[in-house]
Amino acid sequence: MTHRSAFQPAWPGDLTPPLDPARLAEPHILQPEWTLLRHGAVRDHAVVVEGGRFTAVGPVDEVAAQFPSLKRLSLPRMLLMPGMIDTHHHLTQSFGKSLVFGEPSEIFRRVWVPLEGSLNAEHLYLSSKLAALEALRGGFTTVVDAGTRSDAGLDAIARAVSDAGVRCVLGLICNDRPGAETLDAAPILRRASEHLGRYDHHALVTPSLAISIPEVASDAMLHHVHRMCAEAGRIFQTHANEHLVAVERSLNACGRRPIEQLAAVGALGPAALLAHATLVTPHEIRLLADTGAAVAYNPVASAWKGNAVAPAETMATFGVRLGLGTDGTRSDGFRLLDYAEAAQRFAFGIGVGDSSCGAGWRWLDMATHDAADVAGLGDVTGEIAAGKRADFLLVDLDVPELTPSWDVTWELVRLANRDQIRAVFVEGKLRLWDGWPPDWDARALMRDIHAMAADTIAGAPIRKLHDYADAHRARHAQTVSPSGTPGA
């Protein structure tokens, strides 16, 4: 971070001039007021984007000398920062995202499995494109999709994220024990192998393999799928130690907790990305650190329907690789940063007098370059650096919430909002301007979804346990008298 004298504001108070998005499509030396680099926010830096990559990042004068023929595009009051990376998403669940409020844990059995199983290829495309649009609006330029249970195939999802313009790690579910019987492994592994090689030359899609939860796969399948990913340089995804009931089922079935079971069958290593890991023992933290496995920390999911908050700061301190994830709850990157820090403070920090809980930078790192490493894309994206793909945001700092500004990193975690995101770039291409795509009709997508969503949800065997909010209010009113005491 650039040092300033005590109480010197981060920038003076002139008004931000209008910015024409058309100019951003032209070759320029981009000169924002602030640039968020891996080691912190700096001023007086510039970047050049060519062929979808950052070809130069450095002090303004050095970059200008390297590219004398390029004009400078000054971006006062703007922060140029890496696009955030959602390390755990469910793209095909967007039609049902507001069906699960107030629901108890393990909603996948009552809502997500029935919903995803009812989706056809058109549903998959539209729901995934909607989720991709939401992600971009929230400042995410990459999403890691944990796989869908629909039999309609993954090509529709790949097409949707490509059309929306978001980078995607696309999971294929390889469960061989979804019920009481174990399925033939050969066709599952054959399909897995085909999936791993399917997107070799795709600009935005990277394949991944997934097991929904360890208990729905045989020991052999867990081992084989993890090994296939490790050998291919891809990530293996599974949900682990998320809910108490799942931990107890694992103990009953094999005498081990889920993470212990993954280690025992050879499915825990640098290729593994475990979603949630909220219920972890010190021994399991040691296993994660020693094997190099990664965890997607999903604080909003913990708040909305979880049994616990993952001890993310403790895990990171002891060497566990972590990235932030939404779990498909709400694709808002800045609110996710806030939740990530706040959840640690409420769950762990307050009781021991930790007023910092990561000092802001930890959660910003966990949303950018640490998340890229977790997603298997550390060589591709996650930071503003020469050679990396140009996935970045332009964030307006000239807002009341950041006036005056003293500590840009902390402010991004606790004060920033997604409405400050003026532009979203993926692969060097402008994907969103002021929240909307400049090259396709997002409102037409929304109209198409409105036209079909009701029938889609009605046709899925979803079982809710919690009333919609207004129905819940009416039922509550029937049991309480006007004075606030229980009625007759």
TrEMBL record:
Residues 46-68 form the Aminodeoxyfutalosine deaminase/Imidazolonepropionase-like composite domain. The keyword Cell cycle does not apply. The keyword Repeat does not apply. Its EC number is 3.5.4.32. It is an enzyme of class 3 (hydrolase). Residues 80-430 form the Amidohydrolase-related domain. Keywords: Hydrolase, Metal-binding, Zinc. One of its GO terms (molecular function) is 8-oxoguanine deaminase activity. Belongs to the metallo-dependent hydrolases superfamily. ATZ/TRZ family. This is 8-oxoguanine deaminase. It comes from Cupriavidus numazuensis. The lineage of its organism: Bacteria, Pseudomonadati, Pseudomonadota, Betaproteobacteria, Burkholderiales.
